[in-house]
Each structure stands twice: as C-alpha cells, then as structure tokens.
Amino acid sequence: MKITTWNINSVRLRMPLLARFLKTHAPDVICLQETKCRDAEFPSSDLRALGYEHFAIHGQKGYHGVAIVSKHPLRLLDKRDFCEAGHARHVAVEIEASGAPLALHNFYVPAGGDEPDEAINPKFAHKLGFLDEMTEWIRRDRIAEGRAVLLGDLNIAPLEHDVWSHKALLKVVSHTPIEVEKLNKVFAAGDWIDSMRHFVPPEEKLFTWWSYRAADWAASDRGRRLDHILVSKALGGALAGLHVAREARSWERPSDHVPVTIALNP
DNA sequence: ATGGTTGCTTGGCAA
Fold first, then answer.
1. Which CATH number is associated with domain A2-264?
2. Which terminus of chain A is more exposed, N or C, with fewer CB under 10 A?
C-alpha cells in the first residue's frame, strides 16, 4: 500500500504533472493540498481515467483546499474547520489497507505569513492556534489509537537538518522555536512515528519544498521539509519504504513542493 | 539587508 502527500499548488493547472506522477509511481492513495478550486471544479474525470475513482474533496474557491484521491473505496470520516476560520484545510477518510481499516487525515496547516510575532501578525497567531487545536483534538478524539496516518503540508520544518541552514532560519516562519515546539506537541499528543525520519537519519538533510524565488533551486538547494507523514504506533511495524520525488521540482511549471510517498507492508 | 516567483484573477493578496 503506497500513500502519497503532495502540495500541488492548483490541481487544475497541475493536472498534467499529477497524471505524470500517478502513471510513474502508481500510489494507492494520493493526498493533495492547495487544490485551489471548488469541489465541482475538481478534475475528477481526468483522475477516473487514470484509475483513481474514489474521492474525498474539501475545496474552496481560489485558496487552500484539500483532497484524497484513491484507487480503493473511501469512507468519509470528517472535514474539520480548525479555528473556525472557514478554510478548507482538513479532510479525513477510512480506507481498507491490508485487510483492516486505516484512518487517513490530510492537513494543510496555515503558512503563517512573514512576521513570526503573534502580537502583530494574525496569520502567525492563526497558525499557532491551529496547531494547539490539532494537539487537543488528537488527545480528545484519540486520533492516533489504532491504525492512523496524519499527513500533509504542515508548513513547519522541525529538525535542524529539515532546513538548509538552521541558523539562518531561526527567525523565519516555518522554523522558529515556537512553531517547532507546537509541532512537537502535535507529534507527542499521538505518540506518532515520523515516517520520513524513520528512513532518513536526523543528521541528513531532507527537504520537500524549494522556493520559487531562487534563481536556481537545485544549485542553491535551499530547501525545507514542510511536508510530513506521521503514522500511529500500530502501523510502525508496517513501514516498508519512503520516496521523495525530488525530480518533480524540475518538471515544467512545477509546484514548489514535491510528492512524498510511504509504502506500508501488508 | 534586500528581493526574489507563482497562482488566482486583473488588483492585490497569499504563499
């Protein structure tokens, strides 16, 4: 069972790239963020033609938007509006995986704006509040009990080697100590396994995002690991592989994020 | 220290 997360940055614009990825890697399920379209505008028929016939879509016009696209039947579990902001940033399903149901939570955590100060930047306050609410919800609703996966664009790079320069990014939104602390609380609330770091040691650089603003993203390689796949303890023994599709960053008109895939054993 | 790009839309936001 292969599960992918990808911040696609407009699913309509990027449909040819999505098709290319699905044909090459053929995950069972792909979780998208920043689809940037209403549910009725989602390219379902293109995806059906590729063998992905099952959908859970939580979209909105122009901004945000998440979706789960699958070869296998899905049962919609939830579309939560964290912080009651009216943003489409979460969708959850149950899916049959290796003979037993698995809960899959797809997140697009707020980016948080430019200024890492709650007092003057409401977007940063929203990001921190969103993370607090995630922590509380994981505990209260026992989200990580049993077979569960929490993934998506969490917009935080928690480890030193999740960014190109720890020192240079300490005051840059996505890597500030307060954000890292809040994300670590999300991790601890479910006792989640960081599946990417299960396969790649923490002293090794690991990125999933490179800014559009770099003159040559590959040469400078100033990336960050903003996308994550967390699995519950019950799935720890099933972790079988990781693939970060770095090549997708060099495709024509790419997303600034690349697909991340984990494989789970039967 | 600053500015750099992209997407959704055509005026600036959000990232």
1. 3.60.10.10
2. C
